[in-house]
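User: Design a sequence. Structure:
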């Protein structure tokens, strides 16, 4: 009976961990604003993405208030602003604020009732901070007053993907509870086991299998996402940069799981070998 309980608890711990670790990673790096900003921030240093996003942001600047005879002056100023925006001192802060606003749009609580949450029906980038930076630079060079909007939205996904973010916000935090259950199940398995080393070996093998499954799953999932055309050049560039960054970051978690599994496996084998060696020595 003890062996059965121990085996069942070990299997339960592995199954709970299989869901808990990806859920915790999603909560920390996608659902939570700071984690998302840290994960996506390096995109702002990619030159191709920088130029594409700057051009898209500057292209949304409203110049209708500028008199027609000054249009020849504004047009080259727009082009220059798009080309030089990423070199401006305020660009890193504007990019970070863009990420924060965009995250709030995608993961805002429905009951919040804010203007931002109501206006985002799909995954959206709010590039208003970049537009403001470009407008400020154009105003500085041309002496023409430009009034940037409070919001400048660029869709980077489909409405059904917005539903995924709502599910992530709801269910990803449950990963911490599942992780606690996995720890409790593993401790129960150790307490109930006649041979604790066998539990460590099984847990180690399970962790190694999970790390392999997560690696293959993340690669297949990223390939499927990268093969989907969002219909927007800026959205495709964001996707092409963000998805590999996410896979690489999660790869660190799978590696840590594999190392932990290897350690448990070695400890279990050593713990099972020592009593046998002592038993042979006493004969």
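Assistant: Done.
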């Amino acid at each position: 009976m003890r062996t059965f309980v121990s085996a069942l608890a070990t299997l339960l711990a592995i199954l709970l961990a299989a869901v808990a670790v990806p859920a915790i990673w999603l909560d920390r790096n996608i659902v939570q604003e700071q984690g998302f900003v840290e994960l996506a921030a390096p995109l702002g240093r990619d030159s191709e993405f920088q130029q594409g996003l700057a051009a898209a942001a500057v292209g949304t600047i409203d110049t209708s208030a500028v008199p027609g005879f000054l249009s020849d002056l504004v047009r080259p100023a727009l082009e220059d602003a798009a080309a030089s925006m990423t070199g401006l001192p305020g660009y890193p802060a504007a990019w970070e604020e863009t990420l924060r606003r965009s995250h709030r749009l995608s993961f805002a609580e429905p009951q919040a009732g804010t203007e931002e949450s109501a206006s985002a029906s799909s995954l959206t980038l709010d590039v208003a901070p970049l537009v403001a930076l470009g407008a400020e630079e154009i105003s500085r060079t041309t002496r023409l007053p430009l009034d940037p909007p409070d919001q400048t939205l660029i869709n980077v996904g489909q409405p059904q993907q917005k539903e995924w973010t709502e599910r992530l916000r709801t269910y990803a935090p449950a990963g911490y509870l599942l992780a606690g259950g996995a720890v409790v199940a593993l401790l129960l398995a150790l307490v109930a086991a006649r041979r604790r080393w066998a539990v460590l070996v099984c847990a180690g093998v399970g962790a190694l299998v999970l790390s392999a499954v997560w690696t293959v799953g993340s690669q297949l999932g990223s390939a499927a996402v990268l093969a989907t055309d969002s219909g927007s050049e800026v959205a495709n560039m964001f996707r092409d940069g963000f998805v590999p960054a996410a896979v690489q970051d999660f790869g660190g978690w799978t590696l840590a799981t594999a190392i932990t599994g290897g350690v448990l496996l070695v400890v279990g084998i050593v713990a099972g070998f020592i009593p046998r060696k002592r038993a042979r020595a006493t004969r």
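The longest strand covers residues 124-126. The chain has eleven helices and two strands.
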